[in-house]
Amino acid sequence: MDALRFCLNGTWVEEKSLSPTTTLLRYLRDKKGLTGTKEGCAEGDCGACTVAVAEARGGAAPRWRAVNSCLLLLPMVQGKQVVTVEALRGADGHHPAQEAMAKALGSQCGYCTPGIVMSLFEAVYRDDLDAPWKLDDQLCGNLCRCTGYRPIRSAAQAVAGTCPGDRFREGLAAPGPMALAYTAQGQRFVTPATFGALWDELDAHPDARFVVGGTDLSLEVTKRFAVPPKLVSLEALGELSALTETSSGVSLGATATIAEVEAFTATRLPPLHRMVRYFGARQIKHRGTVGGNLCTASPIGDLAPALIALGAVAVLKSRAGERRVSLDEFFLGYRKTALAPKELLAAIEVPSLGKDVKACSYKVSKRRELDISTVSAGFLVETAADGTVTRARLAYGGMAATPKRAAEAEAALVGQPWRQTSVEAAVKALAKDFQPLSDHRGSAGYRSLVAGNLLRGFFLETQGTPQPTLLPGHASTVQPSGAEGGAR
Amino acid sequence: MTATAPAQTPLHQPALHESGLKHTTGEARYVDDLPAPAGLLVGQVVVSPHARAKILRRDGAKARAVPGVHAVYFAEDVPGLNDVGPVVHDEPLFATSEVQFLGQSVALVVGESYEACRAGVKAVEVDYQPLPAILTIEAAESAGAWLSEPHVMERGDVALGLRSAALRFSGEVRTGAQDHFYLETQVTLALPEEGGSLRLLSSTQHPSEVQAIVAHVLHLGRHQVTVEVPRMGGGFGGKETQAAPFAAMAALAALKLQRPVKVWLNRDQDMVQTGKRHPFRCRFEAGFSPDGALLALDAFLVADGGFSTDLSKAILDRGMFHSDNAYFLPNVRLKGLVAKTNLPSNTAFRGFGGPQGMALIEDVMSRAAERLGLDPAKVRARNFYGPAPRNVTPYHQEVKDCRIERVWQELLASSDYAARRAAVDAFNRGSPWLKRGLAITPVKFGISFTTSFLNQAGAYVVLYADGTAQLNHGGTEMGQGLHTKMLAIAAHELGIAPERIRAMTTATDKVPNTSATAASSGSDLNGQAVKQACETLRQRLTPVAAQLLQVSEAEVTFAQGRVFSSARPEVAVPFEKVTQEAYLKQVSLSAAGYYRTPDISYDRAKGRGKPFHYFAYGAAVSEVELSGLTGEHRLRRVDILHDVGASLVPTIDLGQVEGGFIQGLGWLTCEEVLFDDKGFLRTHSPDTYKIPAFGDAPADFRVKLLEGAPQPDVIHGSKAVGEPPLMLALSAVAALRHAVGSFGRAGAEVELSMPCTPEAVLRAVERARAS
Hints:
The structure holds two protein chains of two kinds.
Chain A: E1 4-8, E2 11-15, H1 24-31, E3 50-55, E4 63-68, E5 81-83, H2 96-103, H3 113-124, H4 132-139, H5 150-159, E6 180-184, E7 187-191, H6 195-204, E8 209-211, H7 217-222, E9 230-233, E10 243-246, E11 249-253, H8 258-268, H9 270-277, H10 282-287, H11 290-295, H12 303-309, E12 313-318, E13 321-326, E14 331-333, E15 336-337, E16 344-351, E17 357-364, E18 375-383, E19 389-397, E20 404-405, H13 407-413, H14 420-433, H15 444-462, H16 472-475
Parallel strand pairs in A: 1-5, 7-9, 8-9
Antiparallel strand pairs in A: 1-2, 3-4, 3-5, 6-7, 10-11, 11-16, 12-13, 12-16, 14-15, 17-18, 18-19, 19-20
Chain B: H1 20-25, E1 41-47, E2 53-59, H2 61-64, E3 69-73, E4 98-99, E5 105-111, H3 114-123, E6 125-130, H4 137-143, E7 151-155, H5 158-163, E8 167-175, E9 187-192, E10 198-202, H6 207-218, E11 225-229, H7 244-257, E12 261-264, H8 267-273, E13 280-288, E14 294-304, H9 312-321, E15 332-339, H10 354-372, H11 376-382, H12 404-414, H13 417-429, E16 434-447, E17 456-463, E18 469-473, H14 482-494, E19 501-503, E20 506-507, H15 522-549, E21 556-559, E22 562-565, E23 572-574, H16 575-584, E24 590-596, E25 601-603, E26 608-610, E27 614-627, E28 633-642, H17 650-668, E29 700-705, H18 730-741, H19 758-770
Parallel strand pairs in B: 1-12, 10-11, 14-15, 18-19, 28-29
Antiparallel strand pairs in B: 1-5, 2-4, 2-6, 3-5, 7-15, 8-13, 9-10, 9-12, 11-20, 13-14, 16-27, 17-18, 17-24, 21-22, 22-23, 25-26, 27-28
């Protein structure tokens, strides 16, 4: 059996007896005395536990990524470089992220500060911070209760994207995700490097559960104190993380992270990108994956409504081969999918949108960033030359036990002209499609009202109304793909 | 002065946070970061799964048999008083015959690891017989379940005022609970010391009270209990009283087992077990003249106290003390009560009831302006306190040195309010679904503990012969920058650099019998005590220096690390030369300082007095934008002008103003505490409880401190700053009302409830559109 090995603050560490579901956070604090990294929530919602991890992904050179150490199980950093806040100060003084924070009075109580410094640390080495919203996105995963964020923003603006040629950048060496077979304390964690090894593992342990980023599964460990006996990570199967574009559309590998999808879809698939942007915190986007978000089959998963509307197809893979299932038919019930035992989601294929297609996605939540949808929606409408709707795909999250298309509302649109009266008829028909629940995120009445209003807003946006009809955060940066056609 | 020239004194100068760099490296240690002492055990609390139930049986036998579990403690194991109520003894440390909220402590399991403790918790057997529970203020009112007697403040003739009013209307204003969401949850490490004594390292705003409660729970003298606070990862009032129960549990176990014991709550446990900001239900009737002068207000305020008294009475009082905000109420009657519900005991939270009272009157002002079709800014301004006779509060305190008019006029001008309000209205006329709103609201906040005897503080300053100093004071550091300010005061008084002084861990064996670091009073009270201690030391050093310098004592000056003749500055010696000489001359180099606020008192029975030493003022202009399709909204720009007197350290005060505003914004917009119909807290982690995130701060945030406004009789002319800025966020609610109102007809009252979540806003938009 393998040992756990990774490079922590420049020194390789090896562990052979720790439970494979030990989180990196608990390891740092309890075993290594690295108490700079804090536990604020143990669920990836506050960022106090943020550390940076370097690995090479998708054939690219290794780079630093801010991640939530509270959701990272130790086998997930196998072979990787991990840097915690303690290692930033060197013989040459404080790191620019530290200096900027102190100088701006970006800390008051200081408890969130190490996590913020680590998010800033990633930002310092990013060369793609080319839009203001990306700085918000970089830091929205770090809650601060004291400062009101203004000084943190000042610090971020001072150092983000400065890319100094320092010891964290020069000579950064880290492999990609590595194979691992680790057993300790009666728990098994296997990361196969080949599909052959994967199928063998599944045959030997049919009760093993898949994991990739762990942003959902780890909550069972940190919140319910579960002890998953057998986990199989898909992280080292490189082809599963591929993002490709062909003449017929794009393919999103199941283990591609949300951050990777965000970068990939910015120009290739704007209607999806809009949803991905509000998906969650940077730390979560670095670990959460397309497959994870879809396979948990949560009714409020952010990707599903957008992808369903876009006509996405799920590619399912097993030892027997591949099969394709329309994403419409992938969700069978509350947290239940069409996956057979020992079968995995390999990729999502999104067909090209076509010339006369208008499409967009929306997410409404109590808080704009780092929140779970109250209602989400993906819309696709295709019109003929005379403006008649020839195809309508309206998919919603948060409205039923699964992400679901609004069949009645779609029927009300198809064959009708794309204009307000038709949209109002479709809004009316939504009442037959959905009977949503009331919960802490929103009442049934609110959900129903918003579901209709999102369709109204989508219509208004396709009409190019002079004023944006939804919040500027939604509309000013990404326009829906317009009548001139296709994804831009 | 060039940028590099040293200031004569660190006072009134920008400075970095005393721990700022340490925060960024991870070396700043909080209680849970301290290296585990040998033999450390940890505790986990067994809590009630019912909002109210009779306890039929408690049995820890099976739990004690769980491997790794060392002890299980119930109420019977408490050697002293099984109570942790800070004012009234109505809060058992461990429940005995009845549980009164879901999450109430019933027992403590102590073990070698959290895993062992969790297994132990599961094995503790408690049989409950559920009883009907009261979960809302309405239910408490119906049942007559109260934690207080009525408190009444009255002035003028309310009936006459209402009768004479052209506009007379009544309504209800609700404000929601708010979780403190300090990033560091409740934690105490208890260490046994010799002879049955204890040392506690606790994350508490009130070490002296933790000491007192631990002593009476364990039947010890307070001299046997030392409490230290290294620093807190945020407090906001949540660690004023509610650190004590968990400290007492750690202390109980440490004393009994004679091993170090830590009790730390994880986020979900903390949110379930601890109290929040009090929700208020206020009903009012108000009378206004046609031009917006408030003629009479009759209001009834009910605070949801939760299951026990805690600080609820004082919180209700402060709510009533701020139901006037900055407005003269010519005829007023305020009545208040604390309701008892089967929920966690609500507690201090930045503003301490003040925000709730202010939310009431600001809503009344908005509603009156909406009904009268007037600019709410004008309605507000015309009701401000002014010269006599318009200078008396509902509790008969005279408002002296009122600065609201000045703050208001300066902010109206600097924020370009009038032109922007017109621009917003023009924008709204051309935008059917996206609407904007702009509003300005004032803040007047009373400074002092309204329980008058609490207004006292101590300090203990130690000089060493080498001229360095240690600074002890009764205040605790929770991020607010108190140590930074105290260092500036001490450095100023001693004439040395702040770097030569070390702010020490707050400890009850250094400065005893302290009040909580609360009520925004930290700098005011402790600052005076620090100043006095330093003055004593300086007076002792002066004759020594005079002799060294061969000048008269009157000429001796301490500044910039030197001691010199004021007449001939070149006749100087380094400060450390004087301390060294003083040591050789057998002069004491340590001194205590003490301060009490003079001339304040309040008679609750009569509803009269002078509870406040002075008032802090401020105003904010918020511009919002909202979607009439989803109710989502954002702040486009915020302008604040806030009065901190002559700021002790302006960079620190700026941080308090900005941070307070955003925390208030959270309370009023996105933070929603929701219990289900069984009393279970559904919003028990940041997954479901949403405090403002990075993108919720306004993109354009312009904060200024009022200039040239020193406050007499306060430390170096400064003013308290901790709480008042939180209430500036009420401007965002007023701005949202403006935006929502633009969906409806003029002259209609906007029906917007707080917190203004997207759902609440959309509901209000729908109502406005239907009007």
